[in-house]
Write a structure and sequence with these properties.
Layout lengths: L10 E2 L6 E2 L9 H17 L3 H18 L1
Antiparallel strand pairs: 1-2
Helix pairs in contact: 1-2
The structure holds zinc ion (ZN).
Zinc ion binds next to α1.
Length: 68
């Protein structure tokens, strides 16, 4: 029997575990996404931290791809 998934179900945020209809593809709710963006911005500004290192790697990778 085929299941009918017409009903929209709420997903859970991976950080605050709040259920929301608005969960990003990374599993974050709107609030946590905002927090993460703010954190990333401050890390990029201060040029240190886990997010900055990741961002730097991603950026150089895409730049390399672009240069080819
Ligand atoms: Zn959240």
């Amino acid at each position: 029997m085929k299941e009918i998934s017409k009903k929209k179900f709420r997903r859970q945020c991976i950080i605050c575990h709040k259920k929301s209809y608005y969960i990003s593809e990374h599993g974050l709710c709107g609030n946590c996404m905002k927090e993460k963006i703010l954190l990333a911005r401050s890390q990029i500004k201060s040029k240190e931290g886990e997010i900055y290192e990741k961002w730097k790697t991603n950026l150089s990778e895409s730049l390399e791809r672009f240069a080819r």
